Amino acid sequence: MRLAAAVFLCLISLSVNAWPTKPVRIVVAYPAGGGIDVMARQIAAKLSAPWGQPVVVENKPGANTILAADAVAKAAPDGHTILFTTDATFSINPHLYAKLPYDAQRDFIPVTMLVLLQQMLVAHPSLQANTLDELIKLAKQNPGKINYASYGSGSQPHLAGEMLKHKAGIDLVHVPYKGISLAVPAVIAGEVQLTFSGIATGMGPVKAGRIKAIAIGGKSRSPLLPQVPTFTELGFPEVETHAWFGLFLPAGSPKDATVRIFEDVRKVLDEPEFRQKQLIERGYEVVGSSPEEFSSFMKVDREKRGQAVKISGARAE
Description:
D-Maltodextrin-Binding Protein, domain 2; globular
């Protein structure tokens, strides 16, 4: 009996610790070297030891995250292929594209939202408006004469800009650039007057006086720029400027893998030095939500972004 019990307990232990059984691949939907890629590699390096397997980061950029999402959706649902992407994949693309090669709701399991990144509306110093109220008044006096940059039709800055126009009743001209790294320099150079920027990108130029911050997204002010009011406190809660980073598995992946990934990633996010130096000081709001919390958040976020896409009129093929 004792031998049988020992064998039974051993089998239970092997079952619980069965995952991972081979190297784990994190597919990043963006190019190497960017903020998302850096975060993915930092987290991957911290997961290899507890998982007892190599954790490899593979960059698969292109088609507004569609290439990476499609690859993971078609991967073996064994928990060894993880998608690292942003809200573009799940909250925006389903409204922006008439057809996708994957079903955003059916083909994936949300594992955890890592961080939120709020963007702020910034302006060239020459713009005769220092507050959102002044900007709205100026825009109403000069319809169609103030422009704002984004990094493409349907991007977060485009949707935020169009929602602001809709709610404030103003006419701003959208100027799409071909990359996330071009919009803020365009404002600094005076090519355009406004854009939306993440804190990590915009904080330096704001503190140096090369651009000025008008308002920021989120429910509360950023501790990095506490003088910048939120759109919510200024009466425009509908202006959603955030981006989020999250992890996903192919549908059908084992429950134990989903739970293990969530729990171990949250431990990484909770490491004091990593949390403070790599996330908070770079403008990220640390989340680390459970799969259930993440799924509930995504449902609401998808609906809000759908409204913003409809208002903007953005479409992609």
